[in-house]
Specification:
This protein is an alpha/beta fold. The chain has one domain: Aldolase class I (TIM Barrel), CATH 3.20.20. The chain contains eight helices and eight strands. Strands 1-2-3-4-5-6-7-8 form an eight-stranded parallel beta barrel, surrounded by five helices. Helix 5 links the parallel strand 6 and strand 7. Helix 1 packs across helix 2. The chain is globular.
């Protein structure tokens, strides 16, 4: 299981040193939580753009963009300039399934991998048809919009079911899980089929990034 480190809880004045420390500690991705103040309450768009500018300047670690926004096209355009590894948008931000298809194509046309995110209440069966079209399924294990929330235990069954469906379809779609991940639950997340874990508060607040990342992967 790979680790995508969320920078949401990092203070602006600490960002450069934190990026360096996380790279040395071998994070696999930097997870950028883009919020517009509409799809979720918080607005992080300006801060996350600044963080992406720093990332482009000082590291080659891949950027993992998570859009929690209503105007998906606008934000895809804003963040493709940072050459992200992947851009993930929310199923719930779309008016209908045709719009989901259109946004998947829109991201792919920008030569960027595409991910589809789902909130805790959204069922895997609702998005089955999109699994062959995306590179990554992001399963939210907390309500999107705030860091530091407690992991929703029922997410484990959701991960397991998604993994079963992906295997049945013969796909290589990654399963990323985001929200409340720490050293106590990361093993169960991995065992149920997650291939990428987003870790923010638990990792950023730890005293030893390298140790924490290694333990999260174990």
């Amino acid at each position: 299981m790979e680790i995508s480190t969320s920078l949401l809880s990092v203070k602006k004045e600490d960002i450069i040193q934190t990026i360096y420390n996380l790279e040395v500690a071998h994070t696999d991705y930097f997870h950028i939580d883009v919020m517009d103040g509409r799809f979720v309450e918080n607005d992080t768009s300006e801060t996350m753009r600044i963080f992406c500018e720093y990332l482009n300047q000082i590291t080659n670690v891949p950027i993992d963009i998570h859009l929690m926004v209503t105007n998906i096209k606008e934000y895809v355009d804003s963040y493709t300039i940072f050459n992200p590894n992947i851009i993930t948008f929310h199923y719930e931000a779309c008016k209908n399934k045709e719009e989901v298809d259109n946004y998947i194509k829109y991201v792919k046309d920008r030569e960027t991998k595409v991910g589809l995110a789902i909130k805790p209440e959204t069922k895997i069966d609702d998005i089955i048809e999109f699994l062959p079209k995306i590179n990554l399924l992001l399963i939210m294990s907390v309500e999107p919009g705030k860091g530091g929330q407690k992991f929703i235990e029922s997410t484990l069954e959701k991960i397991k079911y998604a993994k079963t469906k992906i295997d049945e379809m013969g796909l290589e779609t990654e399963i990323e899980v985001d929200g409340g991940i720490n050293l106590e639950n990361s093993k169960n997340i991995k065992e149920n089929g997650a291939t990428i874990a987003v870790c923010g508060t638990a990792l950023i607040k730890s005293k030893d990034y390298e140790y924490t990342i290694r333990k999260l992967k174990e």
